[in-house]
Amino acid sequence: MRNAIAVMNTKGGVGKSTLVLAVAETLSAYHGKNVLVIDSDAQASVSSMLMTIPHLHRLQQNGLTLVDFLVARVLQDAPADWLRLVVRNVSDVDDARSVFLIPSDMQLTLFEREVSKAAQHGRLRAVIGELLREARRVFDIILIDCPPGLSVLTESWLREADFHISPTKADYISVCGLEVFRRFKALNPEMGFAENLGVLVNMKDIGSPTEEDYHAWLLGNADNRCFTQVIPRAIALQEAAYFHSPDRSYFAKYPGETGRAVRRLCEEILERMGLAPAATGVPAAAPQLPDVPEGRLETPLPALRTGKRLADLA
């Protein structure tokens, strides 16, 4: 099944991680999908949005992040089970209980440096491809939060994922970021690349003449496949980035027009993927997973190391 989506723009500050969060929680709460979020950004933004910071730090300290898996599989050629890194019961939306997460760590930046030094680009892509092939069989939707820029890790996701979504603001710099991405995609077509699911205008100031002009320019290029739905700049989405305790309802987190915009976007995404949305409010069937960490635990986790940390490799 083609269900893996890389979300990226070479320009930062376009609301990418918050968008991944909102889409994941909407697909879970509103469409009954099991959603795996893979946080591939060293800043771990979406990880911190889906769980408490102390819990995220414990997972990082205990070697339960994406970088630990990649260090083991790519740099050490050692066995590592990616399913043991999946965190269940994340999200502060009480009716989005089918969102799962592979968290990130700032050592991803160091990992990429080691990959480049050791000329392990091919090995990295093979490991990423294997992970996605296995994850496709377990989850309904896979969302990969890629960092801005075009690193070797992001390139691997883009070449192995099924689709990519490019969020952009309707301004000059963000649109230039799309152009850089377009030129990169045209390089080495024989190596394969994810299909463009669409360009999404995000954080739009409704009523701004300048942003209307840039939006019209984006719509004028059919290759962009712009989503019909735009996501307006809204305080609700800024507040959604903060993990809330106790839990809140979906409609409390995404109220009014903000929630309607995100839900219409998710309907477009499912339609473009060729997936029918489930009936509203129908919970997803639980995927078959081994014992994995709870996203809401507040007690220390037992140590589980898939490989040495990068600091140990020096």
Give the secondary structure arrangement, pairings included:
Elements: E1 4-7, H1 16-29, E2 35-39, H2 45-50, H3 53-61, H4 66-75, E3 99-102, H5 108-117, H6 121-136, E4 141-145, H7 152-160, E5 163-168, H8 172-186, E6 195-201, H9 209-219, H10 235-240, H11 250-253, H12 256-273, H13 310-313
Parallel strand pairs: 1-4, 1-5, 2-3, 2-4, 5-6
Helix pairs in contact: 1-12, 4-5, 6-7
Could you explain how this protein is built, in words?
There is one protein chain. Helix 8 (172-186) links the parallel strand 5 and strand 6. The chain has a single domain (4-269), classed as P-loop containing nucleotide triphosphate hydrolases (Rossmann fold), CATH 3.40.50.300. The protein has helices at residues 16-29, 45-50, 53-61, 66-75, 108-117, 121-136, 152-160, 172-186, 209-219, 235-240, 250-253, 256-273, 310-313; strands at 4-7, 35-39, 99-102, 141-145, 163-168, 195-201. The chain contains 13 helices and 6 strands. Strands 3-2-4-1-5-6 form a 6-stranded parallel sheet, sandwiched between helices. Helix 4 runs parallel beside helix 5 (108-117) and helix 6 crosses helix 7 (152-160). With 314 residues, the chain is α/β, with parallel strands linked by helices.
| Rg for CA atoms | 19 Å
Mean pLDDT: 88
Helix content: 40-55%
Oligomerization category of the chains in this entry: single chain
Number of contiguous helices: 13
Shape: globular
Number of domains: 1
The span between the termini is 40 Å
Largest sheet, order of strands side by side?
3-2-4-1-5-6
Q: Return the CATH topology.
A: Rossmann fold
Largest sheet: 6 strands, parallel
Structural class: alpha/beta
